[in-house]
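pipeline: protein-struct stage 2 | run 1193 | Flavin-nucleotide-binding protein
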Amino acid sequence: MRRAKRQVTDIDLIKKFVDEVEVVRIAINGEKYPYVVTSKFWLFMERRSS
């Protein structure tokens, strides 16, 4: 098998991550690069702040 066919790209890793988590939110907040946060993280932060 050729190396190009085996090579994993960033897009492949992102797709795998999105498939593994239940819900993903992309939060931008005026930053240069968006970041990916799972909904479980937001639930944790909301419970912690209340």
